[in-house]
Amino acid sequence: MKRLQLLKLVFFVLWMGACSLPGNCFTRLTPSAKFSVLTCSPGPDLYSLFGHSAFRLQDTLGGKPLDVVFNYGVFDAFDDGFYVKFARGKLDYRLQAEYYEYFIESYAQEGRGVWEQELNFNPMQKQRLFDLLQSNVQEPNCVYRYDFFFDNCSSRIRDMIIRAAADAPTEGMGFRYISLDTLLSVNKVGFNHPCKHGTTYREAIQKYLDFQPWSDFGIDIALGQPCDRIIGDYGFMFLPDSLMRELELAELDGHLLCSNPTEILPNKTKFVVHCITAPLSLLLIWLVIHASISYRYRRSERKLLAHEGILLSITGLISLLVIFLWFMTDHTTTQNNWNLLWASPLNLLLLFFARKRQTVRIFSLVQLAACSCMLIAFPWLPQSLHVATLPIVLMLIITYYRLHRNTRIIEH
Q1: What are the two backbone dihedrals, phi and then psi, of residue 144, each rounded to the nearest 5 degrees?
Q2: 270's torsion region: left (phi>0), alpha (psi -120 to 50) or beta?
Q3: Where do the H-state alpha helices sit in 179-239?
């Protein structure tokens, strides 16, 4: 069975290579060719939590049926530097053509739903889309630098539809990132933009992250102020299900761009949220324990208690991660991060200078002011911070107050 699948895969790769040759008879689609957009429901893993989009092509070429998927969501998870590249914003994705039966089987095994929308393109537009995808699937065109909000598997579907529907050929644009303004200059598709206006990028992804509270907490810490920008009309299509709604209402040349979504696979994935183990619940428990221990040792002359050291260590290490994502990566959405008000590198410095009374007094006073201001201005900050940061801020305020008070008592 594995040998047969391997032979099929080799044949398909050779076929795609032959199709790309100039003048080859297989480069022309037949009048019965159908292009459609596949939308896949979210999966349980973080990388699949937002769903997926892909093109499907059905035709008969050389007397044989052809049913393939052009998938922009392929990456090498076995790359030795995968996690480093992902963290630094240098992770490359690629377009890959694969048999539809293998593509759909993987989603059936995961219990994820799949919907299909046929594109109502005329023969010229279908051929143009096919030509673009044939060129795009070849090396080195198939590789692109992944950007979750602006250049991903879903936004690439939108871009290719706009390019295929344009009056003039768009091959000269290449296959690297193309600015939205450039694409809109040739756009003929009338999108109706059904998504809610005034929504930020952070709010748009929140409904998916509600099912993974710890991922939600970590992502909210990592993403900076740029994620609180309002999404423009065309920006919503970075999410697969938003793209599906946009395509359902879009118009081209006086008719609907797509047919209504047809369910191919039912969605059997169920997400369960355990509130007891959510960040807010556990951090509130930690806050009660931290406050109780601090109150018990409120008159202690010890410069730094064990539970305070743990808190300062964790928040200090988080600050290093935030700084790394802000200044040392290619991510644009991790900049200007207001979480540094509480996750400050001063917390680590407090550990190293715990025996220096004057240093401890200054650092604790600065951080006490920063955390107090953050607590008061929390609803009005230019960046939406996760509510689970509030227990951490309260614990830090308790810690800074005791340290500052301790240095004054010792001095007097």
Answers
A1: -145, 150
A2: beta
A3: 180-184, 201-209, 213-222
Asked whether the predicted pLDDT for residue 279 surpasses 90, the reply is: yes
pTM: 0.88
For residues 242-269, b (16+ Cβ closer than 10 Å) or e, as one string? Answer: bbbbbbbebebeeeebbeebeebbeeee
Both tokens of 268, joined, read: 């059997």
Q: Which residues pair with 55 in a beta bridge?
A: 37, 70
pLDDT tens, 369-396? 999 999 999 999 999 999 999 999 999 9
Provide the residue type at 172 as one letter.
Answer: G
Q: Where are the domains of the chain?
A: 2-195+231-265, 275-411
pLDDT of residue 25: 36
Helix-, strand-, coil-residue percentages of the chain, each rounded to 5: 55, 15, 35
Look up residue 176 and give its two tokens. 């690297």
Structure tokens at 71: 């998938």
Going by their DSSP bridges, the two strands 143-145 and 92-99 should be labelled as: antiparallel
pLDDT, residue 77, reads 64
156 closest CA partner among 55, 255, 251: 55
pLDDT at 271: 81
Calculate the CA 52 to chain-centre distance: 11
Sequence-ordered list of residues with C-beta below 8 angstroms from that of 291, at least 6 positions apart, any chain: 394, 395, 398
Q: For tokens 């001095």, name the residue.
A: 411
**pLDDT, average across residues 47-59:** 94
